[in-house]
Design brief:
This protein is α/β, with parallel strands linked by helices. It is built from eight helices and five strands, in the order βαβαααβαβααβα. Helix 3 packs across helix 4 and helix 6 crosses helix 7. The longest helix has 19 residues. This is Shikimate kinase. Pfam families: SKI.
Length: 164
Amino acid sequence: MVLVGPPGAGKSSIGRRLARALSLTLVDSDHIIEQSQQKSCGQVFTELGEPAFRALEEEAVATALKSGGVVSLGGGAVLSAATRAQLLNHTVVWIDVSAEEGFRRTRNEDSRPVLQAEDPRAHYRRLLESREDYYREVSDYRVRSDEKTPPGLVAEILGFLETI
């Protein structure tokens, strides 16, 4: 089970609850990067730049996918063709969020350099638009997190898992 989606969609919090419900571990590709680099993903992204960060992220995703647990990917992981190819043999759930809600959830965070812009609201909307086709391409199921509680989202995902 792999969770993808934009920043602020709720992948980490849903992932923790889902892993607990399934009696599995949660493996977060961002945490793998942070552990290997001994600094936050935001710092790594800023220091390396996006192309080098994405290459490092591909390796972290490959490691995470070998875990056998619930895997949460960073919001931009799907930008990599190699990562999208790795996801072909996994059940992928796209946790989606509207631009307005995603912006609301992330607007006060300074730990995500990919979201830094003069007009953060418009930037978040463009980020969603640029990634939507990739999320759609890799996902087997899509849930919208805007108006649902984490337990409700987990129940919906568990319901989907029962159908496969």
